[in-house]
Write a structure and sequence with these properties.
oxidoreductase, three-stranded mixed beta sheet, 465 residues, EC 1.13.11.93, 15% strand, dioxygenase activity, 2,3-Dihydroxybiphenyl 1,2-Dioxygenase, domain 1, alpha+beta, dioxygenase, 2 domains, YdcJ_bac-like
């Protein structure tokens, strides 16, 4: 039996090999990331593995795909469910993006602490909101829905195998091999000609809409390795002659703890595609829709920590409004803001309940009575803390990556009414729970505190500051 963990790891490897063939610059990105990671390990030693072992970091990937309808999204959930990946979080890029990005998203990933440690593969999955009148008029929506409903992204055999794997916890060897082959093929770039006029009509609304609804299949949009020093990687990719987007998205580089997620990418590359013109002729042209993203993951924050991050992001925008600044100047201003508001130590993050950590016993001291409050347990050396990795995404950063790789801003009529598609509606589409990332992190923290309480023999709950 090939279990869901092994299926997930094998799929991530196959997808990486396939995408590297389709987008060779991705291989360069992976090589540079591993080169930087080796240097950080040599410089920092064990400290470099504070947020995950180097084995985990080296294997770690997140992918991104885009689908067009609720039915397609529900099928995606079945395929990833076979690999122990479940929908976590809700992201509305219609609101986060300044340009026309008419999608809502979730991320499929493992939710169990041990599964994340074994292989934390994630796939950020976006769905087109065809009923949003800010982007699509009634006639265009009708034709778009008809086009999407007429295509088939995933063969029935793949979906049958996925359902069997999820129900049974895995597949036998022959079925697992078939499942992995079909799943990988489903995300390959299609060689089927694309209607030139149809694609162009959607592209005038949004390049993202055209990439989803203008083609007969889906494809992996980007695949993202993890790096331990994203600033070093950003500079080195430029030295390799690969054009990067203008800035690193997310928190600034500063001298305090790394929080949340920092992301960047190389710019979307021109890829040859076949187009069918209205007279039936097939011609070759280029599209620029796929890019190479890379990420540096930090500590998961609590709702209070996230509110602080959002406040600082808004303050940064207000401070720099109307000012032409370079990416370096923007980072310098952001870092100064962070230095005034964000704790510089993990201990302060814990006592301020701003970030999530797991806890473990360091010194049980038989015959002594340990304190029941967490701050004292840590200060007196009874227990130690280890940060929980942020496993999720930031809508503002995702939108920034999308925008930086678009050829135009598209068209968004802000005078029209948007479609109401919230997290509850997405859960209904998925036909399974949409996990709240904060609840998942809090559960991992609570389980570690329960273990500490049991090992120390405490007769009451450990109080979180």
């Amino acid at each position: 039996m090939v279990d869901s963990t092994a299926l997930r790891a094998a799929f991530a490897r196959r997808l990486s090999a396939m995408y590297g063939t389709e987008v060779p610059a991705y291989n360069t990105l992976v090589d540079v990331a591993q080169e930087v990671n080796r240097e950080v390990m040599a410089r920092m030693g064990a400290g470099a593995e504070r947020l995950g072992t180097i084995g985990r970091v080296t294997a770690e990937r997140h992918g991104a795909i885009r689908v067009g309808t609720p039915a397609e999204l529900a099928q995606v959930a079945r395929i990833f469910g076979a690999m122990g990946m479940y929908p976590v979080g809700y992201y509305d890029l219609r609101e986060a993006a300044r340009s026309s990005v008419p999608v809502v998203s979730t991320a499929f990933r493992p939710v169990d602490e041990a599964e994340l440690a074994a292989n934390p593969f994630r796939v950020f999955t976006s769905m087109l909101v065809t009923g949003d009148r800010r982007f699509f008029g009634e006639d265009l929506e009708r034709r778009l829905v008809a086009f999407l409903e007429a295509r088939r992204l995933f063969p029935p055999r793949l979906l049958d195998l996925a359902d069997r794997a999820e129900a049974d916890g895995g597949l036998d060897d022959p079925a697992a091999a078939e499942f992995l082959t079909l799943a990988t093929q489903a995300f390959e770039l299609s060689r089927e000609p694309v209607s030139r006029s149809w694609y162009a009509e959607l592209e005038r609304v949004s390049a993202v809409a055209a990439d989803i609804g203008g083609v007969p299949s889906t494809h992996i949009n980007h695949l993202t390795p993890r790096v331990l020093d994203i600033d070093a990687l950003y500079a080195r990719m430029g030295e390799r002659g690969i054009t990067m987007i203008d800035a690193i998205q997310g928190p600034p580089r500063w001298d305090g703890p790394d929080l949340l997620l920092r992301q960047t990418s190389f710019r979307a590359l021109a890829e040859p595609r076949l187009f069918r013109k209205n007279d039936g002729r097939v011609v070759q042209d280029d599209l620029r829709v796929r890019f190479g993203e890379v990420e540096a993951r930090g500590i998961a924050v609590t709702p209070a920590g996230r509110a602080l991050y959002d406040d600082l992001a808004a303050e940064l925008d207000e401070t720099l409004a109307g000012q032409p600044v370079t990416a370096g100047e923007r980072n310098a201003v952001a870092a100064k803001l962070w230095e005034g508001r964000v704790p510089r130590t993990e201990a302060e993050l814990i006592t301020g309940d701003l970030a999530y950590f797991t806890f473990h016993v360091l010194d049980p001291r038989p015959g002594s009575t340990p304190p029941a409050d967490l701050a004292t347990l840590l200060a007196e050396g009874w227990a130690g803390a280890r940060p929980i990795v942020y496993e999720d995404f930031l809508p503002r950063s995702a939108a920034g990556i999308f925008q930086s790789n678009l050829t135009s801003d598209g068209a968004k009529d802000v005078t029209r009414t948007g479609a109401d598609l919230d997290a509850e509606a997405m859960a209904g589409i998925l036909g399974r729970p949409l996990h709240d990332p904060y609840e998942l992190y809090a559960s991992i923290r609570a389980e570690s505190l329960a273990r500490v309480r049991a090992e120390l023999g405490l007769d009451r709950e450990i109080v979180i500051p």
